[in-house]
Amino acid sequence: ENIQNKSIFVDLKNLNWRLGYLGTDIRLSLLMDCVVALQNDGGCKSLEESGNAFCNTVKMTLQEVLDIYKMFESYFLRIFVCTGKGAEGQNKTVPRYFSSMQQIKQKDARKSYSDIFASILLSHSGRAKFPSDATVASALERNQIGQEQLRYMYYILTAIEEINGDVGQLLRQIEYKQAKYSFEHIMPQQLSDEWEKVLGRDAHRIHGQYLNTLGNLTLTAYNAKYGNRSFAFKKNCTQEVAGRTIEVGFNSSPLWLNQKLKVVSLWGEQNINERCKELTERFLIRFAYPTTSISIEKECSQNLCEIDLESITGKQISELRIEGTLNEAFEKSICLSSAKQTVKALVEHLCKIDKECFLDGFEQQKFKNYVSKDKSKWKKCYQIESVGKEFFFNDAMDLIRLVTFVVDICKHYEIAEYVYITF
Q1: C-alpha torsion angle, residues 187, 193, 196, 201 (rounded to 10)
Q2: Quick check: 292 and 415 in contact, CB under 8 A?
Q3: 137: alpha, beta or left, given left = phi > 0 and alpha = psi -120 to 50?
Q4: What is the C-alpha separation between 129 and 140, in angstroms, rounded?
């Protein structure tokens, strides 16, 4: 048992370092509460006996502490992937986790702390909802990860790389300069004439849409050597070292992240999407969605055609889902928790299938309260590149106007009866 506990303690220590690498100091509140429960001897039977809130704590095992911390890591990383936000907004929530666990534990001591914590995380709603596998997969395919979020991307890429190995070792080596790996865009940040030729007439759309998405990102020790050179150069690159020519391209990379790159001759939209799916599968295993035996009250999901706009005031959209349509081309589901990202993903998806239909609806002024060619019409606006740079979308819509826009565009495309919104 001591050997097993030592192994668990090492895993817990490493996990705490990794979360600290991301600057998630709020994790310490949860960890300290768990440590108190870990050390509790169960001597007090009630709060009244001692006046000490922790004296009534049922002892927690070291394995339960590790399980809880792993679930917190998965929750934290999934929220980041879907919203682009880290620990922001968690300062008030995390300190309440332990007291919530205690309340449930005291009602039924047979329930494990791990099971209880999973039920608490899965009971969140709105923007705090624990993102599902479908939501995360959709976000990883579409969402861009900026340079200011570099540490998160190192965290995610190294975790995907080490899924079957010593998790955290590569991240430590990069952090402490023991390994020379750095961030690499396979399709470069600046397109050369050669890259534009390979990507074709949609080169700038593809570049803008996929540059900073997971499928186009990797690790290499030769970022400066690659630059914005061609994909073929990056695969077969060589370097002179002490009078010897050594291979330093993707073809010689020992990383799992780069194995797919060895078997393709070109790099474009389809390759990025295929690689993204492979990396996403490992992400979902590494940062798993928890399960619990405790009953959780489900959120209300309504068909788009049946939504009473007056009843949604004060609520937040947690998910928008297309289950199927009259047109087989719309089989793909869209699951995003961010309202703006949901609208962008929906419009991008619809325009990819039938852009003329969108343009027709615009000309008929069906979207006049949401889309304009006059940038000055909105106080805040944004563009969707796949729609066209001449269109500006209203970025200051309340929930009712947002849902109304979703209803209007889905009705125009004749798919409203297949669209569901969860509040």
Answers
A1: 170
A2: no
A3: alpha
A4: 17
**Residue 22 carries which side chain, given as an amino acid letter?**
L
Amino acid identity for residue 224 in this structure: A
Q: Structure pTM?
A: 0.72
**Consecutive H or E run containing 404:** helix 399-412
Around Cβ 254, how many Cβ atoms within 10 Å?
7
Closest CA to 131 of 273, 298, 318: 318
Q: Rounded to an integer, what distance in angstroms lies between the CA atom of residue 320 and that of residue 211?
A: 25
Collapse the DSSP code of 39 into the 3-class scheme (helix H, G, I; strand E, B; otherwise coil) and give the result.
Answer: helix
Question: Tell me, what's the pLDDT at 48?
Answer: 39
pLDDT digits (tens, 9 = 90+) for 295-328: 876 555 566 666 666 666 666 666 666 655 444 4
Number of residues written out for the chain? 423
3-class secondary structure, 333:
coil
The H or E element that residue 174 is part of is helix 169-175
Rounded CA separation 114/339 (Å): 31
Integer Cα distance of 379 and 397 in angstroms: 10
Rounded CA separation 365/265 (Å)? 45
What whole-number distance in Å separates Cα of residue 71 and Cα of residue 69? 5
Query: In the 8-state DSSP scheme, what is residue 215?
Result: G
Crossing angle of the two packed helices 62-83 and 150-161, in degrees rounded to 10: 120
Alpha helices in 22-108 (DSSP H): 27-39, 47-50, 62-83, 94-107
**172 vs 150: CA distance, rounded Å:** 15
Please state, in angstroms and rounded to a whole number, the distance separating the CA atoms of residues 112 and 114: 5
- Which three-class secondary structure state does DSSP give residue 126? helix
Mean pLDDT of 231-251: 92
Q: Which residue has the tokens 């073929």?
A: 232
CA–CA separation, 311 and 421 (whole Å):
13
Two tokens at 165? 């190995």
Return the exposure string of 16-46: e unless at least 16 CB atoms fall within 10 Å of the residue's CB, then b: bebbebbebebbebbbebbeebbebeeebee
